[in-house]
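Quick one, tokens below:
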């Protein structure tokens, strides 16, 4: 799995961080998403998929390998 984010679309809801904190974080100053791991380990895939589905801005993109 490859993960990418469109930070300019992010609305700083933080759902991704709550669901997959090993993969996503937020900037201190404005809460915009920070991608920590663009190729997360298999044990994080379900959480990352859920984070992408619930992202209100559709700013998370996945490519399944």
């Amino acid at each position: 799995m490859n993960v990418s984010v469109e930070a300019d679309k992010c609305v700083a809801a933080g759902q991704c961080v709550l669901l997959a904190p090993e993969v996503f974080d937020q900037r201190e100053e404005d809460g915009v998403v920070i991608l920590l791991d663009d190729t997360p380990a298999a044990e994080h895939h379900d959480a990352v998929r859920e984070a992408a589905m619930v992202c209100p801005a559709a700013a998370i993109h996945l490519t399944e390998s």
